[in-house]
Design goal:
The complex is a heterodimer of chains A (262) and B (286). Chain A is 38% helix and 23% strand. Chain A is an alpha/beta fold. Chain A folds into two domains: 183 residues, Rossmann fold, CATH 3.40.50; 68 residues, no CATH class. The longest helix of chain A is centred in the C-terminal third of the chain and has 18 residues. Chain A is globular. Chain B is elongated, with a radius of gyration of 23 Å. The N and C termini of chain B lie close together (9 Å). In chain B, helix 2 runs antiparallel to helix 3 and helix 5 packs antiparallel against helix 7. In chain B, 75% of the residues lie in helices and 0% in strands. Classes of the chains: A alpha/beta (262), B mainly alpha (286). Chains A and B meet through helix 2, strand 5, helix 3 and helix 6 of A and helix 6 and helix 7 of B. Chain A: Belongs to the ABC transporter superfamily. Chain A: Pfam families: ABC_tran. Chain A: Keywords: ATP-binding, Nucleotide-binding, Transport.
Chain lengths: 262, 286
């Protein structure tokens, strides 16, 4: 479904993403993990088309996007291939737009439905992420971070994308909602074949959401493999450090700079 | 323009801002009054503002002439009222033209970024370097007296004022994830501009335009005072200040004084309204 080959991004002299290669099959679920600044979000933004790669190839369902500024129609077509849920739920919604209208706008862009059926579709999408009618009529500021994130997920799902990128999008949710959203995403995968690309720094959650994991450090892929293998028998020292920093029973927080921490 | 802090309760906010809100409301009423005068002024004036009365020159306040008369016996109150339109219309044109053009320019620059943004910013810096009033005076001197040339010159001179502020806000807005989300959904650029960016920038544009109006009124009045704008016998306020100037030394400052006070009231009212709106619409520290 998604093929990424030798992807590269430079900002001036700084190489943010260096020769990243991976593929994501239909119904697949891949997690890219790494600390802040490891290049994982830049990778996601390039795949979504929000950032122009300095080099390499990205193909969705076998087709590479045409170079240059795409026309509106081409962008909508691409929107049905890839959608992205952003890290910050506070600014990923227009603060002057009722959240139901935001979802309706997304639906209207992708499905030519009469008003009644469009409303039904919006209600269905909001129901999928566990939001009710009253919340749909609210402005973003009346909703919690987790609720806003769910609106953003519903909006992304309105395009019925084949690949859904979630950039740290689950971390902001309550634990109970997290489980609900993860279950929803799992169902989506099996029912519609949507492939999921998780961008996260949380190795602990990766086990529950992905089959495959890609560990990035300083723009490079340091480890890539099935989740169980990577988590239980990490090869790269960086991966081992990341795994060691997952809080577990007996874990004591240590200050940054103490030996072994961070 | 982020969300309000959670600690601030509704009641707390009303309590704290009430006196300032009252001031803003007062300023708004004064502005509204003058706008009404500008629209209906000629109908409301008790006398013909240009009717000369050689017997009653420099008359003091009386029942027939509430503010007295000027050097040719014209009723000062009627002239002030009738002059509201001329005094407010020119700055209004300046503000509307520079605001509309400036906002479009700011959005275009912020949206495209790159060389276009640098070009717009550079050009605006050059315009900003010219003193607007001097430019307007120069243009009037070249093209002859009359308001058209100075209004065009001032509209250009006021462009950087609005464009710079709106451009900075538009860049910030444009980089918010919700705009990226709309782009990913394939929303047409025109839709993103009209339905999302412009409505979110509108409060800022409104505040800038309101504050700019006060300055524009002063500049237009100054041009008329210099004899380069509206021409006699029009009852424009700047012109009235200059008309009354010779008699000030004779102890008859009424004409200049009243016209000056009218200018002062309108400028202060627009400034207060602008800062009040800014506080209401953009938050305390905007």
């Amino acid at each position: 479904m998604l093929e990424v080959r030798n992807l590269r991004k430079e900002f001036g002299d700084f190489v943010a993403v260096d020769e990243v290669t991976f593929s994501l099959p239909a119904q697949g679920s891949l997690a890219i993990v790494g600390e802040s600044g490891s290049g994982k979000t830049t990778t996601a933004r390039m795949i979504a088309g929000l950032e122009t790669p300095s080099g390499g190839h990205i193909a969705v369902a076998g087709a590479e996007p045409a170079p240059g500024r795409p026309r509106s129609r081409a962008r909508r077509a691409r929107g049905r291939q890839i959608q992205m849920v952003f890290q910050d739920p506070y600014s990923s919604l227009d603060r002057h737009q009722r959240v139901g209208d935001a979802v309706a706008e997304a639906v209207a862009l992708h499905q030519d439905l009469p008003a009644v059926r469009r409303r039904a579709r919006v209600a269905e999408l909001l129901d999928l992420v566990g939001l009710d009618d009253r919340q749909a009529r609210s402005l973003p500021k009346a909703l919690s971070g987790g609720q806003r994130q769910r609106v953003a997920i519903a909006r992304a799902l309105a395009a019925e994308p084949r690949v859904l990128i979630l950039d740290e999008a689950i971390a902001a949710l309550d634990v109970s909602i997290q489980a609900q959203i993860l279950a929803l995403l799992a169902r989506l995968r099996t029912e519609t074949g949507t492939a999921l690309l998780f961008i996260t720094h949380d190795l602990g959650a990766v086990r529950y959401v992905s089959e495959e994991v890609l560990v990035m450090q300083a723009g490079r892929v340091v480890e890539h493999g099935p989740v169980a293998t990577v988590l239980d028998d990490p090869q790269a020292p960086y991966t081992r450090r990341l795994i060691d920093s997952i809080p577990k029973p007996g874990w004591k927080p240590r200050r940054r700079g103490d030996k072994g921490a961070d | 323009m982020t969300t309000a802090p959670l600690t601030r309760t509704t009641t707390g906010r009303t309590k704290r801002t009430r006196p300032r809100d009252r001031l803003t409301l007062g300023a708004g009423c004064v502005v509204a009054l003058f706008v009404l005068l500008a629209v209906f002024g000629p109908l409301l004036a008790p006398h013909d503002p240009n009717a000369v009365d050689p017997v009653n020159v420099y008359a003091g306040p009386s029942a027939t002439h509430l503010l007295g008369t000027d050097d040719t016996g014209r009723d000062l109150l009627s002239r002030l009222i009738a002059g509201t339109r001329a005094s407010l219309a020119a700055p209004a044109v300046v503000v509307v033209v520079s605001t509309v053009l400036g906002t479009l320019l700011a959005l275009t620059a912020a949206w495209s970024g790159g060389w276009l943004d640098r070009l717009v910013s550079g050009a605006l810096d050059i315009v900003f370097g010219f003193p607007g009033l001097i430019m307007a005076v120069l243009v009037a001197a070249v093209f002859g007296a009359g308001l058209t040339a100075p209004v065009v010159a001032l509209s250009i001179a006021y462009l950087p004022l609005i464009t710079r502020v709106v451009r900075a806000a538009a860049i910030k807005e444009r980089n918010l994830p919700y705009v990226s989300a709309l782009q990913l959904l394939g929303a047409p650029t025109a839709r993103i501009w009209l339905r999302h960016l412009l409505p979110n920038l509108l409060p800022l544009v409104l505040v800038q335009a309101t504050i700019g109006f006060g300055y524009a009124l002063l500049d237009v009045a100054a041009i008329s005072f210099l004899g380069l704008g509206d021409q006699p016998p029009d009852p424009e306020w700047g012109l009235m200040v200059s008309n009354g100037a010779p008699s000030i030394l004779s102890g008859l400052p009424q004409q200049s004084l009243y016209a000056g006070i009218a200018i002062l009231i309108v400028v202060v009212a627009f400034n207060l309204l602008g800062t009040g709106l800014s506080r209401r619409l953009l938050g305390e520290n905007a």
